[in-house]
Amino acid sequence: MPDYGRPLEFGVSTEPLADPPEHAAKIAKAADRSGLDLVGIQDHPYQRRFLDTWTLISTLVPVTENVRFFPDVANLPLRPPAMLAKAAASLDVISGGRVEVGLGAGAFWDAVVGMGGERRSPGEAVRSTEEAIDVMRLVWSGERSLHYDGDFYSLKGMRPGPSPAHGVGIWVGAYGPRMLGLIGRKADGWVPSLGFSPPGRLEDMHKRIDEGAAEAGRDPSEIKRVYNVSGNIGPDGDGLLEGPVGKWVETLSGFVLEGGMDSFIFWPGGDHARQTELFAREVVPAVREAVKGGRS
Fold it and tell me: Quick one: which of 244, 247, 251 has its CA closest to 227?
């Protein structure tokens, strides 16, 4: 399995908890203070205990300085892509270029329908996601009057703005073969979770992305590959990512050098703030060194 040689990035996930509402800010500040690159926030608007993800990110931007934020991943059936692109561009301007977009085709369909969204078949999910990527890129293109006529989304003379402060990445969270091919053809990145894409499946999933990239005339190494990984850093543990720093370093560096991934979003167990700081202080630098040595 290839190491695509991409730069490494590391981040943390924080739940958008309504109680206590200050939870996410505590984790975001810890990530920023510790020098992490990214904060990912899941987007499940139908969860009563969760705050709205985009609203929450808008409150985290002013209390941090360097860390970038992204929905991990935005719920497309409940967030029309033109409005999603507008929200992302607005926050990117406000933050000085610190917003990316994780995009999901949808899941938990009963809950989506309960909020007024449409239930989509797997094929419809792929086609609507492809259209959404097209629409979002068009909204960010700088053109003055936008027209788009798709099966799921349309624009009829939209006047977009503002433009993002930087080239916002679109990272798709997906696992099926057609969606992986779409990522290769059109997305800037892939953002799977370890639980749904275990190490034994990575080679085949990378292959499908790479085939899609080749079909579109793209270099597969252009595509960012961000792994959501959950676990606990501590003295012992039996799980893949349960145990001491050395175990984490060996596992994550292996995911890069042998598993084709280049970035990691840590979903911490236990004391989230302490785990975040431990990850940033002890795991991240050691993984960087191990990968540097493995690539030399």
Answer: 251
